[in-house]
Design goal:
Layout lengths: L13 E2 L5 E2 L8 E7 L8 H12 L4 E7 L11 H12 L18 H6 L18 E4 L5 E4 L8 H10 L3
Length: 167
């Protein structure tokens, strides 16, 4: 009998903004903050903090990866070109923003199906609650989940990032 090989989260394919296939493994051993983003949400100002984290830690082996999602009250209705332009001109986003995904339901992106198994600080897992739910993935494969109301610059997120970065 063979044992099934568990696919690493970093090996699950998804579409880049240009439609080409990529994986989180393409980011190497970086600490990654994966977040479902939206341009017309009350939490959209979190883009500013996400970009601050990118600028502060990007050269130390860290990257934010934004996954636009239109599942929550249609708050990401634009085309990829619209989304990329908005992120760049409004928030100065320099981190990768990939193709739109669904994060919940039967058509959820495979990466998000896997991420939803991670527990938050209260031990809860399951559906993505809203835009800007955050997952910090360490190079060792540990996933830390933070709900939408936890701001990107929250001490708990910063601590996980800093503890996971190379010395």
């Amino acid at each position: 009998m063979t044992t099934p090989v568990q696919t690493s989260l970093r090996d699950i394919p998804f579409a880049a903004a240009d439609g080409s296939e990529t994986t989180l493994a393409d980011f190497g051993d970086k600490v990654l903050l994966v977040v479902n983003v939206a341009s017309k949400c009350g939490l959209t100002p979190q883009y500013e903090q996400l970009e601050q984290l990118q600028r502060e830690y990007g050269d130390r082996g860290f990257s934010v990866v934004g996954f636009p999602c239109n599942q929550f009250m249609g708050q990401e209705p634009g085309s990829m070109d619209d989304i990329l332009e908005y992120c760049s001109t409004t928030w100065g986003v320099s981190f990768p923003v990939v193709d739109k995904v669904k994060v919940n339901g039967g058509k959820a992106a495979p990466l998000y199906k896997a991420l939803k198994k991670a527990e938050d600080a209260e031990g809860n897992h399951g559906p993505i609650l809203w835009n800007f739910e955050k997952f910090v993935l360490t190079p060792e494969g540990v996933v830390h989940r933070f709900r939408p109301n936890v701001k990107p610059d929250d001490a708990a997120i910063v601590r996980v990032i800093e503890e996971s970065l190379p010395a």
